[in-house]
Amino acid sequence: MCSRLVLVVFALFGASMAQAAVKQAAPDGFQIEHRFLLAAAPAQAWATLGQPARWWPKDHTWSGDAANLRLDLTLGACFCERWKGGGAEHGRVIMLRRHELLRLSAALGPLQDMAVSGVLSVALAAKDNGTEATVTYRVSGTSTHALDKIAPAVDRVIGQQFGGWAAYHGD
User: Fold this and answer.
1) How many CB atoms lie within 10 A of CB 113?
2) pLDDT digits (tens, 9 = 90+) for 80-104
C-alpha cells in the first residue's frame, strides 16, 4: 500500500511538474501549459474530465469535499461546487468539441476575488494507445494584480488538479 501511495504522489506531482511551464508571465497576465499522457482513450479521458468529484483534490475546493463538484460537458454548463448553505461557480463551459476540447471561462480559487479573467482549455489527442492532454490556463488582469508573482503558484496548483485527472487513468 505504501509503495502505491508513493507512485500516486509521484504521478500527481513529479510527472506533472516535469511537463509543465509558465509560458509567459507579466504583471497583467500569465499563460501556463501542462502536458499529460493518460492511459485511456480520448473518449474515456473526456468522460472522466466531466467527473471532477473523482479526481479533483479536495484541498482545492471551497467546501473541502470534491464530491460537491459538478461539470456537465455541455455548452454553457457550470463547473460548480454546491454544499449545504453555499456554493461557488468555478467556471463556465464556453467551447467544446466532444473528445477533443473543453474550454472554460474560469478565474479559479483566489483569482475569483481578484476580478481577473481566466480561460482554461483542455485539449485531447489520441497518442500511443492513450491520450495526450494539453491543459492551458491564461489569466489576464491589470498590472496592479502583479500576476507574474503568483504565476508559479498557480502553475503548481493546475499541475496538482489536472495531475489528479491524469493519475486517475494511471492503471
Assistant:
1) 8
2) 999 999 999 999 999 999 999 999 9
Q: Which domain holds residue 102?
A: 2-168
**Looking at the DSSP assignment, which residues form a beta bridge with residue 132?**
37, 125
The total number of structural domains in the chain stands at 1
For position 155, which CATH number holds? 3.30.530.20
The three state secondary structure string of the chain is: CHHHHHHHHHHHHHHHHHCEEEEEEECCEEEEEEEEEECCCHHHHHHHHCCHHHCCCHHHCCCCCHHHEEECCCCCCEEEEEECCEEEEEEEEEEEECCCEEEEECCCHHHHHHCCEEEEEEEEEEECCEEEEEEEEEEECCHHHCHHHHHHHHHHHHHHHHHHHHHHCCC
Give the bridge partners for 29, in sequence order: 26, 140
Average pLDDT, rounded, for the chain:
89
| pTM of the predicted protein model | 0.86
